[in-house]
Amino acid sequence: VTLDQNNRILVEQGLRRIRAGFCCEGIKALMKITGRNPRLLKATDLGFSIAPRINAAGRLDSMSLGVECLLSEQKEEAEDYARQLDTMNAERRLIESDMREQAIAQVEGWLNGHHDRKLPVAICLQQSDWHEGVLGIVASRLKDQLHRPVIAFGLSGEETLKGSARSIPGLHIRDVLFALATRHGELINQFGGHAMAAGLTIPREKFHQFTAAFIEEVSAQLGEQAQEKTITTDGSLATELIALETAEVLHFAGPWGQGFPAPVFDDCFRVEACRNLRGGHLRMKVKPLSSEEEFEAIYFSPDEDFRAAIEHADQFRFVYSLDINEYRNKRSLQLVIKHAQST
């Protein structure tokens, strides 16, 4: 949902009420179990920390658990629901991790089978044991990594594949499926969605035919130029502005979101230290090339190219945002790395 003016007002008013303590016991319990400080809660905390736990119930079992958590009026009951949701979200993350590894292995297998190692303009992957509740997340992660529209399929019944599609800017994925259904009605059972995401079912035996037709249609609608990923930033940030005070100003200038993105900056840094965190993330100490001042940085789920590069290089061009890290009642600045490129 685009964060237009009306939605920004609604989100901001909701955040103000939560920060003031005027929210349901379920939200309080979810903030507690995720370690979020209600006074500093921002829209991204809801989108990337609290909402995934509510959604995990619907992805793996039944949405009723998430609903019960939000409707609960008793603190103890809400916290019990929140613990269950947290456990389910951890399970969802394990399933997602396994599926992502299997999906990447399929992509690598495809590349190894083609001497030019060039990916097609669109990707279709399928595995019979993939969990249908996690297909969309896997498709989204691969779409971000490969900058290609992706459909991930899992088995639904004996003869049907259920898929979740994610698109890139410039390609209306539902229109692509509509065109396919019009020209090749035998390849699609059902579909629905919008510009950036869609769901569909296809006959299992038609997977390879569907893949070929999907690639052809995407190529016709997308063109070569849209396959190049463009990263837009707010430019370089003076070293003296890479500070906790700047992060606080940006924090309260939100809410940020789709259609109203948070500022991101673009500078060159030297990586002084790096260590692995649980979940595949990296914690780093970095210095701007123009300064000796050191900053804490975190890189969530970096790709294998960066992991390989950091073994033999220490200077990188980072696209990053400023964030506030709160630990043991101490607030400090941290840089959140969005993209990295060796210099």
- How many strand segments? 10
CATH A-level architecture of the largest domain: Roll
- State Rg: 22 Å
Indicate the overall shape: globular
CATH topology of the largest domain, by name, is Diaminopimelate Epimerase, Chain A, domain 1
Q: What is the C-level CATH assignment of the largest domain?
A: Alpha Beta
Q: Which structural category fits the helices and strands?
A: alpha+beta
- Average pLDDT confidence is 92
Termini separation comes to 36 Å
Order of helices and strands: HHHHHEHEEHEEHHEEEHEE
What is the topology, as strand order, of the major beta sheet? Answer: 1-2-3-5-4
Fraction of residues in β-strands: 15-25%
* Number of continuous helical runs: 10
The domain tally reads 3
Major beta-sheet overview = 5 strands, mixed
